Hints:
16% strand, TIM Barrel, globular, two-stranded antiparallel sheet, 8-stranded parallel β-barrel, alpha/beta
Amino acid sequence: MSRDDLTFGWFLPTSGDTTCLGDPAARIAQSPEVFDEIVEAVDNGGFKYLLMPVNATCWEATVVASYYAARTRNVAPLIALRSGYCNPTLAAKMFATLDQMSGGRLCINLIAGISDDDTRADGILDTKEVRYEKMDEEVEIMKKLWVAPGAIDHQGKHYTVTQAIEPKPLQQPFPPFFLGGGSDYALEISAKHSTVHLFWGDKPAVIAEKIEDIRERAAKYGRRDEIQFGMRLQIICRDTEEAAWEEAYRLIAGSTKFNLANNRLGANAVEGIRKTSEANRRVWDLLEESGEEMKIHPHLWTGISTVRAGAGIAVVGTPKQVANTLDEFVDAGCSSFCLSGYPHAEAARIFSSKVLPYFEGRLAAGLPQAA
């Protein structure tokens, strides 16, 4: 695995930010001004992409992404394609149009939904299995529409499409696809379609094993060497290790375990998420295994998982310690890092100014290349 051509992305918290996950009074409400500060830090900070989240409390991802694609010059929005939410012909046209209008700054995040409860609340009654079936078919249709010189003829289980569209994407053959998930469904979709499979945090040695498993799956589609891998991680970085750990524990001070700060149902969402999200089960298993200090590695901390669904594993330490820990994941086979921290603008500036210099000369010139 090459240690060069690394890409770093950041997260835009459109459901709101905070300075302390355990204190409701510390919440920073959504606003264009809050988003502007974060996006400016990311666009000028050496990051390649910006993840737009989707759940009931988030501002709509495609609209926000399109707005910031017009106001930035460097970063590419990473926008969700939510299985079953949008006709694939329309999705292909929307994404290709934005790719053209932004000068090739677009990534697509494949999402089947974190829980059946959330998707049902949105009016999507499909089971997780059906959502992944639709996702597979939707991506297949989009790829066909983007590369075909004329009308396609797709006769599938969920969709029939006999259409040609314009424009085609500026990125060739199409924009990169990201997917984060730990179920067999997710791994198979990634093996078949993803440019980058994102893991939600784990021990580097475990990630190396998972990468080999996905490469074996990808080999069935002739993509063993094409698929790339990344980590979705939180960053808590300070000039001294003591200060970094103080900040980590302060960030969740006063919190109630599993009263989720990033879900509208709070603690009531946990059981539904456990039932349908293998990736969340793994993160929460790591939390249970990590003991009182909540460490799974000298600089990997599970504490944020007590109050956040999804990516709750944090890298904690000095700039050099953070960089060295990320390099352990590079050695395991990862080439991309989708990061976040609290509050997000400050954390992005710290990472950009103090950690990214350790990767000088190893950063990719552009986005991960779809294949």
